[in-house]
Amino acid sequence: xxxxxxxxxxYVGLVTGACFAELGHDVVVRDVVADRIEQLRAGTVPIxxxxxxxxxxxxxxxxxxxxxxxxxxxxxxxxxxxxxTPPTYSGDADxxxxxxVVDELAGLERPAVLVMKSTVPVGTGAKVRHRLDERGLDNVxxxxxxxxxxxxxxxxxxxQPDRIVIGAxxxxxxxAVEELHRGIEAPVVRSDVASAEMIKLAANAAxxxxxxxxxxxxxxxxxxxxxxxxxxxxxxxxRRIGPSFLRAGIGYGGSCFPKDSLALKQLAANSGYHFxxxxxxxxxxxxxxxxxxxxxxxxxxxxxGKTVALLGIAFKPNTDDVREAPSLxxxxxxxxxxxxxxxxxxxxxxxxxxxxxxxxxxxxALDGADAAVVVxxxxxxxxxxxRAAAGRMRNPLLIDGRNMLDPDELRAAGFTxxxxxxxxx
Length: 425
Ligand code: UGA
Hints:
Elements: E1 3-7, H1 11-22, E2 26-30, H2 34-41, H3 52-58, E3 63-66, H4 69-73, E4 78-81, H5 96-104, E5 112-116, H6 124-134, E6 140-144, H7 154-159, E7 164-168, H8 171-180, E8 188-191, H9 193-224, H10 228-236, H11 257-270, H12 276-300, E9 307-311, H13 326-336, E10 340-344, E11 356-359, H14 362-366, E12 371-374, H15 379-382, H16 386-392, E13 397-400, H17 407-412, E14 416-418
Parallel strand pairs: 1-2, 1-4, 2-3, 4-5, 5-6, 7-8, 9-10, 9-12, 10-11, 12-13, 13-14
Antiparallel strand pairs: 6-7
Helix pairs in contact: 1-3, 9-11, 9-12, 12-13
The protein binds uridine-5'-diphosphate-glucuronic acid.
């Protein structure tokens, strides 16, 4: 069994650490936020990720949490970097947290492998390798081992991945990281470091492209009378295409897609290449978030003084993450149009929404509203008593931004229902 130091106690670091502990390894997770480390030591999980709490408590004896670099480095066979790489003003990834970790690795006496889990631009590994060499750390190997876990299903995605990607400069380091994953059944893709870095960015870009593609098909469905839900089903059954990531809606958000698309776009641009398709994917997504406002205006005219309920704040269900959530853009646009915003979410904190009244349950959010928008497809909404919901609204208009509800049932419950790319009544 190995000893793994993990830098970063966010979604990726905690899931990675807990899953390695579950495989039997000793794990030390280091973060710079004292409050976070204290919570973890006290057995409280600072983020909402299904299955993580159980995993952490089951493996408590193999996991320690620390603020000290030395604790994470001491005796470590592997040093996993799982720090944030947020976008800078220019859209490039901000690697300052990555560089801080690399620069903090002083005095490593025994051989270890530095493993990059954070999403970084292609070429980062080569730069880190160079910096390690400059500092005489040639006993530290370097491996790119990108993550493909999605929030809400991260534990399952880690334990039952579609593949494990390992890009190494030295084959022995790649072998060691492969061995560290023993117990996880999955195809292993071995490559050079740059290709592993690109696999991560290209995989996310492919998924985003599918979403923007189906959203554009949805928009064309709206003007031609087709129903995108049936269209996606019919298209997705083609084995060459497949059904995943063909759910039309109000656009993608989250901590990964928006950031990674910008980072890949800028990576290409910085190298002199204009990535036209990716630019279009990003632009379609931006417009998609705003189209809901147009739908509301079609029904209500001016939104000034109207009350709109946003059902869901998180960027997707089963997470409390609101980073780049469509709810933020919608709330901002509604406020700009002079509307009052009421919002509900079962776990996400609504404090990031500009000037919204945050409600404890969906029915409360609908009280006196002129319209409601399903922003996040929380399962609670499928179970809601929509007839009662219609009764609480001033005007029962529902824009189903995720096409999660049955249009006929909603209409029977008294709603004017509109989805995304679905035929009108
Ligand atoms: C995504 C990828 O799915 C992971 O493989 C990847 O590891 C991760 O980014 C990352 O780079 O760290 P995540 O952002 O957690 O994971 O969530 P997804 O389930 O991929 O959803 C992203 C967004 O796309 C959400 O806003 C979701 O509502 C939207 N989406 C997804 C659609 O609009 N339609 C779809 O058909 C699927």
